[in-house]
Copper resistance protein B (Luteibacter rhizovicinus), 317 residues
Amino acid sequence: MRRPWVVIAALFLIAQAHAQSAPEQPKMDMDHGSMDHGSMDHSSMAQPATDAPQMDHSAMDHGSMGDMDMGGMSMAPMQGGKAPADARSPDYSDGLVHSPMKHMDMDDSAPVGMLMIDQLESWAGRDDHGQRWEAQGWYGGDTNRLWVRTEGERARGSLEDADIEALWSHAIATFWNTQLGARHDFGEGPGRTWAAFGVQGLAPYWFELEATAYAGQGGRTAARVRAEYEVLFTQRLILQPEFEVNAYGKDDPARGIGSGISDLQLGLRLRYEIRRTFAPYVGVKFVHTMGNTADLIRSEGRRVTDLQWVAGVRVWF
């Protein structure tokens, strides 16, 4: 009976000796209440590597698998290519199919017209004073027009010199027209009628030019060249310089005209466009007669050079 107790006592002594020989682990007092387990990144924690079992394919008989028939499958291109025969027309709308659009008929030949009274003014020179007008109007399309223009001057209470022209204007280039027609002079002395041919247009740098040649009865010839320009100080305040020169091939004493260059005129007018169609202006005009015409003017006791102050209105409809 003593032997079991001896065995138990021996085992107890061996366990006690082993416990005393093991190193004592320090105790950690950790407060888990302050730890935010939701923000912890567990992805960086290393996992124990596991060896996946290798599959032995040598025992598999791939030759015994049934053949797959891919011929019945159709893969159309994702973009490009021809549309199917039954595809809807892109012009289809509510059951209507529109045909190709034909050329549009543009109404660019409709006749229109305009009347411009460029100068309707009073003038005062060194010895005389009077009134003057200059106007033009046209009616027609972009290519062919009926063009009428007139100018004249009154002095000492009577009509001194005037003319009117009726011309057929035909466009030959951008901003340029040929003009063919007739001119009639009236006023002091006998009336004169001329055939007229010239060009009118807009030169580079926006110069408006007009050059006309005339042929009259008895071998008379004449020519007139005019140029205008506009300087815009504002959209409504505009300065307009003007130049004109006249020449005649033969003397016409009955109308106070000599052969050669007859007169040179320079004008400067400043207008304010109250409306685009109505603009009062003031200005100055320099008139100088030359050649045989100057001799006729001197014989009448008048000045060959005159500086005139002008005031008037410019109107167009």
